[in-house]
Amino acid sequence: MSENAPGTQPLNQHFNEPLNQPRALRLGVAGPVGTGKSSILATLCRALAGELSMAVVTNDIYTDEDARFLRSAGVLPTERIRAVETGACPHTAIRDDVSANLDAVEDLEEAYGPLDLVLIESGGDNLTATFSPALADAQLFCIDVAGGGDVARKGGPGITGADLLVINKTDLAPHVEVDVAAMVADAEAARDGLRVLALSKHDAASVAELADWVRALLVRHRSGTHVPTDPGPMAPHSHGPGPGPGDGEGHSHP
Ligand SMILES: Nc1nc2c(ncn2[C@@H]2O[C@H](COP(=O)(O)OP(=O)(O)OP(=O)(O)O)[C@@H](O)[C@H]2O)c(=O)[nH]1
Ligand SMILES: [Mg+2]
Question: Is the minimum distance from the CB of 171 to ligand 1 under 6 angstroms?
């Protein structure tokens, strides 16, 4: 009789996962257009790729622009950076039908696994776009000082409920007349104890804090004490007809 009679194998063997080797932590990065999501991915790859096995999935509406930016930045081997083209609705691909993103993540895990960390960048969207917990174990929502000091007060599920809220580009604050401390205080008041991080890619101390936050999250993921939470659904809205592929005749998200 074989050592493992049918039905007696440890459950994980059915899924080809070594025991005690949880799959990679999947960290989603969302936020409005241009707030610095790709830069955060580049920063995290530079800070962590020496100690963690990493891969990246980007989402763009029409192109693979973000993937090309990250490949040319040389922050990871190029084949570990995959692009998903989302069509007109970036939020759909991270929330309503996550299959294209899940396929990309699983392909990367199969090709280069075991991985420690997969970063998924959402296409730039509005303040209410968040990841489904079916795709991301945890999510970072990114706003920036250039969008105005009142953005944190505008709320939305990413600002109030993401695992980490980044207030980015703090080096620009004097140029756009924003008080970073007040913006952080507004955000903290909206987040019921959840972490807020003031970040600039030019401020090494803030980059180190971001990397430490990811390391601590990974420890909780591996020990099974991190519970993925859903920041909440998008606000109801509709898209008008558009000229691009995927724009179609327009549609609504109730
Ligand atoms: N001054 C400053 N500029 C930054 C910082 N982070 C990002 N940027 C700049 O902001 C611009 C947009 O950054 P990206 O990282 O491409 O932003 P994104 O959110 O990925 O943009 P989309 O994917 O198009 O939504 C670029 O010109 C970056 O160089 C920062 O900390 N400080
Ligand atoms: Mg980007």
Answer: yes
Q: Is the CB of 66 under 6 A from ligand 1?
A: yes
Contact 124, 32 (CB under 8 A): yes
156 lines ligand 1 (CB under 6 A): no
32 lines ligand 1 (CB under 6 A): no
The 10s digit of each residue's pLDDT in 103-113 is: 999 999 999 99
CB atoms within 10 A of CB 115: 20
- List, for residues 120-144, the tens digit of each pLDDT value: 999 887 788 899 999 999 999 999 9
**Sign of torsion over alpha carbons 112, 66, 208, 214:** negative
Q: Which ligand is nearest to the CA of 66?
A: 2
29, 33, 38, best to mutate for ligand 1 pocket (most atoms within 8 Å of CB):
38
Q: Is the distance from CB of 100 to CB of 93 less than 8 angstroms? A: yes
pLDDT digits (tens, 9 = 90+) for 162-218: 999 999 999 999 999 999 999 999 999 999 999 999 999 999 999 999 999 999 999
Burial of 134 (0-12, 13-18, 19+ CB in 10 A): middle
Q: What is the third-level CATH fold of 23-222?
A: Rossmann fold (3.40.50)
